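Progress note, sequence design subtask.
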């Protein structure tokens, strides 16, 4: 799933930024608009959600990641949420928002470092402390919207992997701990970069 989401985000991003011609750009614009409408919504609320996500993914999810019953598998749900939030993130963007090697929480920490809003850190803390996946998803959507406003991107392949891990009780605490660390380090590194720039 990690490879599939990353490759799909890279392709759609390249197309929407006009790197593959006008026809590809127009097609990507339609795909992202459709995905964006589902951002932050439970996958179960729309019977077309899973189908549309699986059709967009290239390469496709491997057999072990696919569900086999009446509910989406953790990998399918994570791919759906990652791609719909990516579509939201790319709305009106003129630069890449899928940035390899930058975690979601690091980007949030960078946003905090350059923001004057006193509510940003409490919002991120609420995400970490959310008791349900639905509440966590709502907070995540809110953070992605704020990141879009400042044109700060992150790695959607890694993000999808983290979303999948959050569905497992034995892995959730580790992901949230890492997000807390990444947020703090993103804030400090961004502040250090600003200090270096102002000294030059």
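Output:
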């Amino acid at each position: 799933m990690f490879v599939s989401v990353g490759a799909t985000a890279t392709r759609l991003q390249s197309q929407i930024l006009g790197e593959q011609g006008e026809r590809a750009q127009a097609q990507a614009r339609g795909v992202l608009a459709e995905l964006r409408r589902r951002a932050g919504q439970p996958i179960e609320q729309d019977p077309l959600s899973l189908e549309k996500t699986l059709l967009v993914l290239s390469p496709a999810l491997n057999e072990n990641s696919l569900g086999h019953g009446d509910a989406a598998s953790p990998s399918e749900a994570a791919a759906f949420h990652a791609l719909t939030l990516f579509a939201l993130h790319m709305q009106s963007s003129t630069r890449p928002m899928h940035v390899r090697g930058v975690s979601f929480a690091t980007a949030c920490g960078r946003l905090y470092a350059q923001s004057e809003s006193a509510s940003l850190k409490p919002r991120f803390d609420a995400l970490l402390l959310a008791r349900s996946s639905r509440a966590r998803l709502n907070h995540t959507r809110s953070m992605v919207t704020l990141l879009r406003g400042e044109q700060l991107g992150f790695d959607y392949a890694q993000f999808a992997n983290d979303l999948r891990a959050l569905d497992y009780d034995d892995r959730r605490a580790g992901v949230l701990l890492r997000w807390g660390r990444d947020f703090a380090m993103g804030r400090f590194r961004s502040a250090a970069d600003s200090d270096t720039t102002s000294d030059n």
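The two ends are 43 Å apart (CA to CA). Work on this subtask will continue into the next period as scheduled.
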